[in-house]
Amino acid sequence: MFKTVFKQYKVKSTSPDLSEVVSFDEIDDNPEKDSKAQRISFNNEDTNWSEFPGLKSPRAWRTFVLKSHPGLLVIRNPFTDHGQRYWIARCLRDYPRAPNIVNLNERLFDDSVRCDWWKELQECKDPSERHRIKAAMRWTTLGYHHDWDTKIYNEHSKSPFPEDLSRLCQLFSSYLGYQDFRSEAAIVNYYPLGSSLSGHTDHSEPNHLAPLFSFSFGQTAIFLIGGRTLEEKPTAIYLESGDVLVMSGESRLCYHAVPRIIQTTNMSTDSLPNESKLENFKFLDIDLFEQVADSNYWQPFCSYIADSRININVRQVLKPGDLKLN
Ligand code: SIN
Questions:
Q1: What residues does Fe cation bind to (predicted)?
Q2: pTM score > 0.85 for this model?
Q3: 220: Cβ below 6 Å to ligand 1?
């Protein structure tokens, strides 16, 4: 059943039937309508969370759950435009840099590209080579590196986990009541239009009780969430730029996939006003935060995201109290 639905959305046709795809904005506009999802609220608004640069105040966050998939939550774009720019630039300029691992094959790309993909892409003048370099980037891994073959994490294969991303996840995890979440591994996925990710479960982490945080930026994904087996029919939802999807509880080990990317999002190229008091947030790359507000600096990132999607998904690997893998 999962594979059949996946193929329905992945079909090459330019206009697949999207009438079943859950749109959270539509639910908000028509709360009375019988829908597969509903909005929920949290009673924790008195905490001083609005202090995080690039995020809207939690009072303005809108959180949704799917009635038939307990444990799956979507916080609908809690980021400001400035915040989205920052995380997009981090995913393009910084996260694919060594010692993080990228998918780029050593037989097809020089070390220079494999160690600093974005810099080489910006410096490349030949249009067809630029296209080749751009399209080839599909993932980078941070923290404990996911091993795509064995699916087993290894204590000897890890790079430092970015402090800014860890703090971001800490904030969302405390908002949802997971005070002890630790960001220990992430995969950043890059999706050019036309790409997809087939059905899988994320079960490599010894810790299945901690939630998984998944951030979407750029073009919209159709995301499928199914059950513990491929027999169950998945539900399709839209994940739009800025959305935060959380897989916790029962949904943590469920099949999921991205059969299609739809071009819907036009990010502004204008300069933005800068935020104040950034010096209190030393865990951010403050220079980058300021630079992305400038239209010239933002332009190459904006151009990349005009026909691509980026997803960052962050997991806790170790069980509570463990300091390393056994
Ligand atoms: C994943 O499951 O690894 C990525 C999901 C997504 O791109 O939203």
A1: 200, 202, 256
A2: yes
A3: no
Least confident of 1-10, 22-31, 143-152, 166-175: 22-31
Most informative mutation of 139, 238, 256, 315 for ligand 1 (most atoms within 8 A of CB): 256
Burial 225-257 (b: 16+ CB within 10 A, else e): bbbeeeebebbbbbbbbbbbbbbbeebbebbbb
Number of H helices and E strands in the chain, helices first, is 9, 13
- Reported as a pLDDT band with limits 50, 70 and 90, residue 44 is low
Atom number in ligand 1 closest to CA 189 = 7
139 Cβ below 6 A of ligand 1: no
Domains and their CATH numbers in the chain:
2-103+138-315 (2.60.120.590)
pLDDT mean over 125-138: 97
pLDDT: is 179 or 134 the higher one?
134
Cβ of residue 214 lying under 6 Å from some atom of ligand 1: yes
202 annotated ligand-binding residue: yes
The confidence score (pLDDT) of residue 47 equals: 58
| DSSP secondary structure string for all residues of 240-297 | -TT-EEEE-GGGGGS-EEEEEEE-------S--PPPS-GGG-TTS-HHHHHHTTSHHH
Any known ligand binding at 256? Answer: yes
